């Protein structure tokens, strides 16, 4: 009976768009890495005397802030709403 | 042969050994004192980027859903590009040198590994590479 029901369900060929506990753990780690890298780059840029080095290091600060925002987006309530809607049974 | 010759980010004097020429720009001057200079700052940022690629490499492998996987893969890729930019700038500033391998060694290795191609277990040539970019992939869409 149960076997029969199960086999009639649509099989998922990849994981649903849901953040796993592992995803959340890695995201929070990576956000800290990016924030630290951005702060370090900004601090270094302010100390540089060579303009080319200063410019490069400022670019790095920008890059890490962009990466921070991309990662943060995966934790945003908007994303979570989307996931709740699609897979309500995961969020009881 | 010594494979450890590039003084990557280090302060070792360039020494090619066995008459191998040095490929290097004239060094941009930095104070070689106890204070943290521009070269140190660039080196430290390079170490940071390298460390980040290690972290994101593990992250991308552990992600579950497709959108997260794609975003993290993109961040990993861009972090590698950042490493490369820093490396290029260090080379431009003359803070990094390298030594060309002896052409006879390269020729020997080419010969040796060309011979190993006879060990390939598969002789069919796929019409396309399904793993080409790794982006926009869907499971088993091949």
Jot down its keywords.
heterodimer; A: 92 residues; B: Methane Monooxygenase Hydroxylase, Chain G, domain 1; 46% helix; 0% strand; flat; disordered N terminus
Q: Let me know the number of strands of chain B.
A: 0
Reported by name, the CATH topology of the domain at 26-98 in chain B is Methane Monooxygenase Hydroxylase, Chain G, domain 1
User: Which percent band covers the strand fraction of chain A?
Assistant: under 5%
Number of helices of chain B: 3
Number of DSSP-assigned strands of chain A: 0
SSE string of chain A, helix = H, strand = E?
HHHH
Distance from first to last alpha carbon of chain B:
44 Å
Order of helices and strands of chain B: HHH
What gyration radius of chain B follows from the Cα positions, in whole Å? 21 Å
Q: What class, by secondary structure content of chain A?
A: mainly alpha
> How much is the average pLDDT of chain B?
85
Largest interface: A-B, 35 and 35 residues
CATH top level assignment of the domain at 26-98 in chain B: Mainly Alpha
User: Can you count the helices of chain A?
Assistant: 4
Shape, principal axes of CA atoms of chain B: flat
**What is the CATH architecture term of the domain at 26-98 in chain B?**
Up-down Bundle
Biggest sheet overview of chain B:
none
Unreliable stretches of chain B? 1-16
User: N- to C-terminal separation of chain A?
Assistant: 26 Å
Written account of the structure:
- The complex is a heterodimer of chains A (92) and B (142).
- Chain A contains 4 helices and no strands.
- With 92 residues, chain A is mostly helical.
- Chain A has one domain (23-90).
- Chain A starts with a helix and ends in a 6-residue tail after the last helix.
- Chain B is an all-alpha fold and 142 residues long.
- Chain B has a domain at 26-98: Methane Monooxygenase Hydroxylase, Chain G, domain 1.
- Chain B contains 3 helices and no strands.
- Chain B has helices at residues 38-62, 66-92, 103-116.
- In chain B, helix 1 runs antiparallel to helix 2 (66-92).
- The longest helix of chain B is centred in the middle third of the chain and has 27 residues, at 66-92.
- Chain B starts with 37 loop residues before the first helix and ends in a 26-residue tail after the last helix.
- In chain B, 20% of the residues are buried.
- Chains A and B meet through helix 2 and helix 3 of A and helix 1 and helix 2 of B.
């Amino acid at each position: 009976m149960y076997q029969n029901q199960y086999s009639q369900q649509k099989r998922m060929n990849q994981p649903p768009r849901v953040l796993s506990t592992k995803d959340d753990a890695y995201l929070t780690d990576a956000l800290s890495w990016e924030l630290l890298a951005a702060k370090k780059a900004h601090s270094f840029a302010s100390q540089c005397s060579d303009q080319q080095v200063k410019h490069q290091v400022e670019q790095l600060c920008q890059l890490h802030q962009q990466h921070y925002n991309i990662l943060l987006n995966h934790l945003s309530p908007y994303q979570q709403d989307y996931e709740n809607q699609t897979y309500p049974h995961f969020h009881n | 042969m010594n494979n450890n010759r590039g003084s990557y980010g280090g302060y070792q004097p360039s020494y090619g050994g066995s008459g191998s020429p040095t490929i290097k720009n004239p060094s941009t001057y930095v104070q070689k004192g106890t204070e943290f200079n521009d070269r140190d700052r660039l080196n430290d940022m390079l170490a940071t980027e390298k460390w980040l690629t290690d972290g994101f490499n593990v992250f991308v492998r552990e992600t579950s859903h497709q959108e997260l996987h794609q975003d993290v893969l993109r961040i990993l890729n861009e972090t590698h590009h950042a490493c490369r930019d820093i490396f290029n700038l260090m080379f431009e500033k003359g803070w990094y040198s390298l030594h060309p391998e002896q052409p006879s060694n390269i020729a020997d290795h080419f010969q040796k590994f060309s011979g190993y191609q006879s060990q390939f277990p598969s002789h069919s040539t796929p019409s396309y590479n399904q793993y080409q970019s790794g982006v926009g992939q869907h499971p088993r869409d091949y």
